[in-house]
Design a protein that fits this description.
The chain is of the alpha+beta class. It contains 9 helices and 8 strands.
């Protein structure tokens, strides 16, 4: 069993029997992962990492790294391409459009087209906006390399720090929503969506009912976000 922690150094994670396990630190991480996974499944999305709850504070996902392959985060990819940590920090201080163009330029170098990247990031930015994902830094998306397939940009995973999870349970929901900030190329979720273009999920009535019946803070926030952008 391999044990490690999250990028924030707080959430315990481990790999066992070809499953990645994650235990709550703030409280609600497993619920957030499960809700987003169920949402993506209900929308007919295929290329996401499914999560299941296996305890009140524990979730797991199957190992998504193919045998003989590797997962290289965007941050690590840039380092492999010769950028220092200081270089990357300076790039991250630039305007959102400049950061976004930079990411697309670097990913184009390994074979992704601009149209393909805009489509991938439009979907990523939309789900992060809907779920208030405050942890989509450059180590939380990346490339899967395998022996027999072309490089694949993996983005739809790791939603544990979404839906207000990182804020105290005593904080009013509307305050947690207001304080949630994006972090991929901008602090504004709406701005990120503008950069990549529009994307709309095919939201099912059955999922709305599922959220209404869930009775958790995370489900309540998710429902309020869907109501804001899809009603």
């Amino acid at each position: 069993m391999t044990v490690f922690t999250s990028s924030k150094g707080t959430q315990e994670k481990w790999l066992k029997d070809d499953y990645f396990y994650k235990r709550d630190f703030f409280g609600g991480e497993a619920e957030a992962e499960f809700l987003v996974s169920e949402f993506l499944k209900s929308c007919g999305i295929k290329d996401y990492v499914p999560y299941e709850k296996v305890g009140s504070d524990l979730c797991r996902s199957q190992n998504f790294i193919p045998e003989g392959g590797s997962f290289v985060t965007m941050f690590r990819l840039l380092q492999q391409r010769g950028y220092t940590e200081s270089d990357i920090e300076q790039i991250a201080k630039k305007q959102p459009q400049e950061q976004y163009n930079f990411l697309k330029k670097e990913l184009a170098e390994i074979g992704f087209s601009e149209a393909e990247l805009d489509s991938i990031f439009a979907r990523l930015f939309e789900i992060d906006r809907l779920t208030l994902n405050v942890d989509r830094h450059w180590n939380n998306f990346g490339i899967i390399f395998s022996k027999d397939e072309p490089p694949y940009l993996l983005t739809l995973f790791d939603f544990g720090y979404s839906l207000g999870v990182t804020f105290p349970r005593t904080m009013p929901t509307h305050v947690a929503i207001r304080k949630s900030k994006a972090m991929t190329v901008s602090k504004s979720f709406d701005k990120q969506c503008e950069l990549a273009g529009a994307f709309s999920f095919d939201i099912q009535d059955s999922f709305i009912e599922f959220l209404k019946n869930r009775k958790t803070r995370e489900a309540h926030i998710f429902l309020s976000r869907i109501n804001k952008y899809y009603n």
